[in-house]
Amino acid sequence: MPEAAKTAIVDFLAETTPWTELSLKIHANPELSFQEHQAAGWITETLSAQGFEITQGLTPETPTAFKATWSSGTGGPHIVFMAEYDALPKIGHGCGHNVIAGAGAGAAAALKHALETTGTPGSVSLVGTPAEEEGGGKILLAEAGAFDEFDAALMIHPADKTMTVRGNRACVDMFIQFHGKGAHAASRPHEGINALDAVINSFVTIRQLMPYLHRSANVHGIITKGGEANNVIPDHCEANFLLRAESVEALESIRQRVENAVERSAESVGASTTIEYGLTYAELKANRKMADLFGDNLRSIDVPVAEDVTELGGSSDVGNISRVLPTIHPYIKIGDVIAHTTDFAAAAGSPAGMEAVIQGAKGLAMTGWDLISSPETLQQAEEEFAAAMAEAEA
Ligand SMILES: [Zn+2]
Ligand SMILES: [Zn+2]
């Protein structure tokens, strides 16, 4: 039997409509990373109408980020929900970030309603985190300190299963230029240095290295420039690798060995390299205490929760938030669909997708309530976070 505040949250979300309307509007108007001006505008308008104070932008690099805050003005913890709202090229909301946005906004308003009606001290924010698909918006926000003021961070992501935790890896993009020397491939090959041979050597060497890298390593690459003409020795080639591992610490050891292998491979044919890296996406350190509360809250409103998936998967910029404060990123089922497909995009705008918006908002707001209303609960989440970070950095 849920306590009165949780009943108030559930009733509030059952009786108010902006959350699914907001989600459908974002779904119908997909915007790419860092171009999500309409989505950010619609979310902030909706929360402003609910009495939230809005700050736009947050950092110079993230013009489509925002913070919407409501505070009781009487102290207490500060809980933050996160909203993503960027889409994918060609397939629109194929990752269903419109569901995240609707659920996050609904959760913020519902938790505010619970705090207000019970006179409980505390603050609640929704931070709009742009460019998850391309650009690492949360990494930029975390590095700028935009999450330092909060006590716990929560968001949901749509999926093919409702689950509280899914295995996740740190990753970094590696961009390599190979410099050789051009020459006629038939009449003067001895005067050239073949940059493509350096690329091919690198792929072979990295493959040979794979069994000896960290057991959580996943290294995958493509050739992005392989030469201009088959009768010219390529003087300049490019490749791009994505390196993943179970933690940023493991990733760093892999990165050094792969970089070394690429440099040696290029040197072996007389070529040289220029290597650049993208932003480092940290692994998600899902807070078990908060994840369990979220699962319990969903079950209490008759939403079935599947087993966690522990096998290591992809990456998300929410990992960088999870190294700043206790964080969860559970999943809500929208259908038997795979992310980044047109089928997933259709499900994200379907009645099942809209049900996920409301279920997600309820689960998030109820878990936010658990953390804000019980100092012991929040303390347990904080202690778990501190222990996980101490272990990672040891
Ligand atoms: Zn995605
Ligand atoms: Zn996504």
TrEMBL record:
Domain Peptidase M20 dimerisation: 168-266
GO BP terms: folic acid catabolic process
GO molecular function: dipeptidase activity; para-aminobenzoyl-glutamate hydrolase activity
Assigned GO CC terms: cytoplasm
Taxonomic superkingdom: Bacteria
Transmembrane residue ranges: none
Gene3D superfamilies per UniProt: 3.30.70.360, Zn peptidases (3.40.630.10)
Similarity comment text for this entry: Belongs to the peptidase M20A family.
Protein name, UniProt field: Peptidase M20 domain-containing protein 2
Organism of provenance: Nesterenkonia sedimenti
Taxonomic classification: Bacteria, Bacillati, Actinomycetota, Actinomycetes, Micrococcales
